[in-house]
Each structure stands twice: as structure tokens, then as C-alpha cells.
Inverse folding.
């Protein structure tokens, strides 16, 4: 007896066969394929079952995917063989159908491919569907690069899961900085109004470039000895208001003894020192000064301006090398090996003072250290931070969901600073385009209480800068 047709052929729509890692990365992927159909091999369900235990993000996603499948099948009045409609559960965002493997499929794979391995079994299902419906596009969707290579080697279509990506090309990511062309004032200076605004000067301009400006975006023009640096404070269609900045490269404006060494660092300090900005994102490679500037601004606003009661610092604990096992001690002591960057920067900020001597320096360091709390991400859920200065380091390793969990902890009077380098992602399944840091930079741009700067120049040492270029 020939095997029955699993799917009613519809050549206009595609049939996507999902690998397990797609569901474990994004359980809502079931509802992300619009008018196309989805097919789940039986091995995918078994792998979901094998990965459901534990408190990791992958285990949580596996459980959520299983719940989605359970509700889809239990609420559907359709025969599973005919496919479960996704239109109602997805609020009409997906109009295709979900098919589960309901029959035993034996498809001839090359003899040298191991039988019984889940990946190969899924490839066998894709090959069976491809042969059964030659006129329809059958595509394997997997986050596993080697799985996709094997599929293509067998003559099957395969692709990555793209729906989680905020941007296809991270070169297009918002930098927070806009260079003004040399003829900017000729085109935008007509009918311009300007005047003092506190310690700064405002410029009310209109012209075509104003449409591209976003709130709290920094604009600059290098004119020889008289550079122009400003921030966009208002934007409406083809008009905008620019306000000049505080020059933090000058020693009179030093923050905890730290002065900005370049244009972007001065922009960063303007964001960090502005109490109207609740959320700051900083991108940049190692040595651009992200942690140092953030800590300096936090210490000044906590100890001198009394804006915040304490600094809270957290980061994702993803080891670069082999894990060193369980660490003894309290939450703070367990996190301290991950916080070497904090201690290194405190050494820079707590410069020796000849008047106070070594004892005075040690006392100052202990005072500062007592006001900086190190917290683990694992215990953030359910908390609310009031009047805190929250620093999220290495934020490129967070998923968008984890980022949302953290940022929504902020209560009244709290400032959140996220920083990281999207070129250094250590978490499996996350890429530059799908990182939580990329996600918040893109989603928060243009909000009046948030700001972003991408730092370009390393300021660590000539050795570090040269190593960054040649290695």
C-alpha cells in the first residue's frame, strides 16, 4: 500500500520542516511563518522531551514549545493528518497549518550516514517530503550550521531561522552619532533661531536632514579648530532643535578625575550625567572605556549628587574557557571572579593621593566598594530597583527575553546602563543580529529618555590598540 499523502499540496506556499533547536531558541517560531505550513518530525518532539528538565533558558523554551503544541492540538477540531490551523492561536499572524509526523517514514539516506541519530532521522523526513511533493518547496529550518550543510549536500533546501534577527546586517545598527555634512549650515541655517538654554546654546533648525535625526542623537561637525558638538532635543518632520554639549574632554569638567579622551567618550558622559536619561546603551570593542566611564559617572551621581542610593552591577556568567566548577561563598563572593573588570576600573578611579596616604586610599576604596553591589542575573526576577544605578555588563550574551526581564526591574529613579561588544558573543544560538543588546539598541532609539553611543576608538594603550588591528 503506498504511503498516504500527509499534506494537501499547495504549490503557492512552502513547507518548513523545523529542527528542534529552532523551537528551543524561540518557542513562538511556530507562529512566525505567515502563510506557509510547518512540519514537525517525531524526533523533534523526542528531543524537546529530552531537554525539558532544568532551569536553563533552553529548558524553559523546550517546555514552552511543548505547551504551545499541546494547546494547538487539544483545541483543534481538525484531523492532525490534515494539519492544525495556526490562524486563531497566532491572532491571524500565521495563516498556514501545522503538521506532525503521524506515520513511520523510511527514506533511503546514504549508507555512510549513521542510522538512529536524530539529525539524520530529521533529514530523512525532509527527503521523504521532498520526494513526495516534488512540485512544492520543502525547506529545513535549523540553527545548526552542520545540519544545514548536510541537507544541502543531499540536495535539500535548508536555511537559518531569521525571524529572531533584529537586523540582517549589524553595520546598519543605530550608532547614536550623526556626522553633519560640510554644507549643513548652508542648507539648514535659513530662518534658524538660536539662544542660550541654561549653560548651553540651542539651535532651532529646519531642512531635509532633520527628518533623519532621532531624539538624543549626537551630531557633530569638525571644522578645524572650532568643532560643533550637539544633541538632538526635539525633532518634528523637517525641523529639529540641537543643544550644545558639556565638554568632558576639559579637565574642569572631569568626572571623578576622569576626562573624555575622544569625541564619543564625551558623548557618553553627556548621556550618563543627564538625570533625564533613564536608559543608556553603549557598544564598543574592548578598551573603548565603557566600564570606566559608566562607573565614574555612577560614583559621582551616587556619592556627590546623591541621585542614586547604590550602584548594582551584573553580567552574564558565560565562561570563555573551561568552567571552574562550583564557587564557594555568598552570591557576592560567587560573582566576584566574574567582576575582575570592576576591580580593575576601581584601581584607575581610586588614584593615590599624596595627602591621604595609603591608609586613606584603602579607606576610600572600601567605602566605594561597599556602595557597589554585585548581583547575579539568576535572582533578578520579581525584584524592583528604586533609585539604583544598574549596570549590565557583557549584555551581548543576553537574549531579548532576558533583556526585557532585566530592564523591567527598574523602578522610579533608577538608571539602567547596558554595555557590551556584539562581536564577542559566547552564548550558543545568539548572533550579532539576534543579541538582546542589538534588540534594545534598535527598539529604544528615538525615545526621549534613552540614548545610545557606539564607541569606535580604543583608549587602553598603544599595545592594545595595535593588537586589536593586527591580530
Amino acid at each position: 500500500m503506498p504511503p498516504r499523502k500527509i499534506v494537501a499540496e499547495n504549490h503557492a506556499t512552502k513547507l518548513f520542516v523545523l529542527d528542534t533547536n529552532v523551537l528551543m531558541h524561540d518557542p513562538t517560531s511556530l507562529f512566525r511563518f505567515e502563510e506557509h505550513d510547518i512540519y514537525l518530525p517525531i524526533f523533534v518532539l523526542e528531543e524537546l522531551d529530552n531537554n525539558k528538565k532544568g532551569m536553563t533558558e533552553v529548558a524553559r523554551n523546550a517546555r514552552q514549545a511543548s505547551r504551545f503544541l499541546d494547546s494547538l492540538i487539544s483545541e483543534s477540531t481538525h484531523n492532525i493528518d490534515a494539519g492544525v490551523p495556526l490562524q486563531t492561536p497566532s491572532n491571524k499572524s500565521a495563516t498556514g497549518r501545522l503538521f506532525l509526523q503521524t506515520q513511520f517514514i523510511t527514506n533511503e539516506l546514504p549508507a555512510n550516514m549513521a542510522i538512529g541519530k536524530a539529525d539524520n532521522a530529521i533529514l530523512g523526513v525532509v527527503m521523504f517530503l521532498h520526494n513526495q511533493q516534488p512540485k512544492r518547496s520543502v525547506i529545513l529550518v535549523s540553527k545548526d550550521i552542520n545540519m544545514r550543510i548536510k541537507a544541502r549536500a543531499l540536495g535539500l533546501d535548508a536555511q537559518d531561522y531569521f525571524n529572531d534577527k533584529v537586523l540582517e546586517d549589524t553595520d546598519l545598527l543605530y550608532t547614536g552619532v550623526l556626522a553633519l555634512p560640510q554644507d549643513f549650515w548652508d542648507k539648514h541655517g535659513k530662518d534658524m533661531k538660536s539662544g542660550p538654554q541654561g549653560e548651553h546654546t540651542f539651535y532651532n533648525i529646519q531642512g531635509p536632514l532633520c527628518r533623519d535625526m532621532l531624539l538624543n542623537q549626537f551630531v557633530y561637525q569638525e571644522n578645524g579648530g572650532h568643532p560643533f558638538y550637539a544633541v538632538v532635543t526635539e525633532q518634528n518632520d523637517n525641523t529639529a532643535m540641537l543643544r550644545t554639549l558639556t565638554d568632558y574632554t576639559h579637565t574642569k569638567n572631569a568626572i571623578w578625575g576622569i576626562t573624555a579622551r575622544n569625541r564619543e567618550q564625551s558623548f557618553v558622559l553627556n548621556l550618563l550625567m543627564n538625570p533625564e536619561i533613564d536608559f543608556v546603551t553603549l557598544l564598543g570593542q574592548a578598551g573603548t572605556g565603557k566600564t570606566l566611564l559608566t562607573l565614574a559617572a555612577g560614583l559621582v551621581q551616587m556619592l556627590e549628587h546623591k541621585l542614586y542610593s547604590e550602584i548594582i552591577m551584573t553580567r552574564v556568567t558565560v565562561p570563555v574557557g573551561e568552567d571552574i566548577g562550583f564557587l564557594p561563598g555568598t552570591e557576592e563572593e560567587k560573582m566576584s571572579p566574574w567582576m575582575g573588570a570592576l576591580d580593575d576600573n576601581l584601581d584607575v578611579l581610586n588614584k593615590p593621593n599624596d595627602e591621604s596616604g595609603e591608609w586613606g586610599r584603602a579607606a576610600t576604596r572600601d567605602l566605594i566598594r561597599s556602595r557597589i553591589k554585585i548581583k547575579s542575573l539568576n535572582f533578578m526576577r520579581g525584584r524592583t530597583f528604586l533609585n539604583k544605578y544598574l549596570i549590565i555588563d557583557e549584555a551581548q550574551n543576553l537574549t531579548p527575553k532576558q533583556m526585557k526581564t532585566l530592564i523591567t526591574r527598574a523602578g522610579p529613579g533608577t538608571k539602567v546602563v547596558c554595555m557590551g561588544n556584539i562581536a564577542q558573543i559566547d552564548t550558543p544560538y545568539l548572533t550579532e543580529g539576534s543579541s538582546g543588546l542589538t534588540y534594545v539598541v534598535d527598539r529604544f532609539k528615538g525615545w526621549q529618555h534613552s540614548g545610545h553611543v557606539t564607541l569606535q576608538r580604543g583608549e587602553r594603550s598603544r599595545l592594545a590598540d595595535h593588537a586589536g588591528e593586527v591580530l
